[in-house]
Amino acid sequence: MTEFGFIERIAQLFSGLPANGFEGIGDDCAVLPLGSGESLLFTTDLLTEEVHFLRDRTSPRELGRKSLAVNLSDIASMGAQPVATLLSLALPSDATGEWAEEFMQGYREMSEEFSAALVGGDTTRSASGITINVTAIGRAADDRIKRRSDARPGDVIFTAGELGASGTGLRDLLEGRCDTPAAALHRNPQPQVAEGRWLAGRPEVHAMMDLSDGLASDMRHILDRSGVGAEIDTALIPVAAGSDLRTAACGGEDYKLLLTADADAAAQLAAAFRQTFRSPLYPLGRITRDGGLVWLQDGRPVELDWQGFRHY
Amino acid sequence: MTEFGFIERIAQLFSGLPANGFEGIGDDCAVLPLGSGESLLFTTDLLTEEVHFLRDRTSPRELGRKSLAVNLSDIASMGAQPVATLLSLALPSDATGEWAEEFMQGYREMSEEFSAALVGGDTTRSASGITINVTAIGRAADDRIKRRSDARPGDVIFTAGELGASGTGLRDLLEGRCDTPAAALHRNPQPQVAEGRWLAGRPEVHAMMDLSDGLASDMRHILDRSGVGAEIDTALIPVAAGSDLRTAACGGEDYKLLLTADADAAAQLAAAFRQTFRSPLYPLGRITRDGGLVWLQDGRPVELDWQGFRHY
Fold first, then answer.
1. Mind listing the domains of chain A with CATH numbers?
2. Distances (CA, A) of B160 to A111, B174, B193, B212
3. What is the pTM of this model?
4. Of residues A17, A108, A133, nearest to B133 (C-beta)
5. How close is the nearest chain B Cα to the Cα of A12, in Å?
6. How far apart (Å, rounded) are the C-alpha atoms in residues A156 and A231?
7. Most CB atoms closer than 10 Å: which of B20, B72, B170, B182?
């Protein structure tokens, strides 16, 4: 069974249980409306050695930063402000002491950068590799939360940054080139928290998520949840310097925002974004009524075997 | 560095960061007052293969139940009602398919029993053993939350159940006797959620926590947080059938509530508890002004090398 197959099975198993006020499985975060006009948002991510990172090719400080960053990116992707995290660490005997101290220094740096408190956790011994689990909690006004499920036919699709650097960096790392700019970007993702909050304040933004598994995979989540299709012009995909088109579409872990916006307001949105962040929103194509995800070259549909990213 | 040394170091590292309204590290759960008279409570626990469980000596269904139970016990220990959980699973290739399905069946059974929704999670491949992380969320009225820090000199110390069965069961399992009653209890802890909520409604209950690391260790957490001492009469420790006194005091994972209550109301509290739950509160001794944790035999202090429990 694939990961997504297993998640669907879990959702099915639990569908009969009370929701206790939560919007649960299916988006980047679970959402709990507090009844006061605000909601809390929850997300969790598990990183295991040799699957999500190679210990000899990342510093503990970078790993501390990244463990938090990937969770803050989920909070950002729905437009929320991070408020707190819980951190679980399973450490083998050769990754305690100095390793653990440096990991926590990195985790603290990023916590401080995004004003997130560390409110709980669990530390334990591990019989084999390092495992890290972070649960992040965010806060947002109810009417500023963006979901995967709100894309509408005619919407313009944007990414809030260039793609492919992380995928290229991962390839560099696996081939032993640890000091390339792309490898550094792969180890040091930066969650688009300010961008997410700003976009959440714009009613013309309909659907939003973060690109963690790659455009080819993540775009399909928006389509599935919204019940729509999409046409993406491959020539419009913003390929990061040193990367290539296929990696930009299929590589994972870029942690840039992916969003759809009302076509009539899209140009104005992009201009205001550029003015605020000194960085463009890149239009990729359009949401269609149906038909799945269609890649266009020179305006014509092409068959591409592009799939999302799988870890190591 | 010990686990507690590392946790203290983490608390120190993060002390300068904004708390964002949370009561953080130091109790069974982090507490977020919502401003409406209610709070949310958060806890997280990581279970790793060979440290917290042996795959060939527990069924996946039992492990699913236990992964949730240990977290619900933390929610119960502060008097809250569980509302939701997030579940992260890292599974090696030989623990997918049927194993994963049975694990989820067990997790679902216990979720249903305590009306907890599953609202998020992460599933990933593992290069070595199984790792499970659960984050549980609870809800309670602000004025019904019980903490480790509220024990007062003169309080009577109680446990809400017999002790030692889990520790004895663990010994049985490690020695290959997987079918003893104690081994079954070790694999199937039951969180005292109803008991915790009931006790939380009694103002004469001052401090409360759950016994996960053993009385000898956990009692010291109440003393440290409350700035008090304690005298425990070893003859009063309720030893579970088939267990022994030392295991009852030092063994872990009994998941019974440990509480302190005003001496003037203690007898009435115990009587009402027995009437409600058909099971006694066991008095163990008294909170003192200071002097650490003192074990008494025949009314006299004795030196015992009793320490808390460490996993496998």
1. 19-144 (3.30.1330.10), 148-302 (3.90.650.10)
2. 39, 27, 11, 13
3. 0.95
4. A133
5. 11
6. 10
7. B72
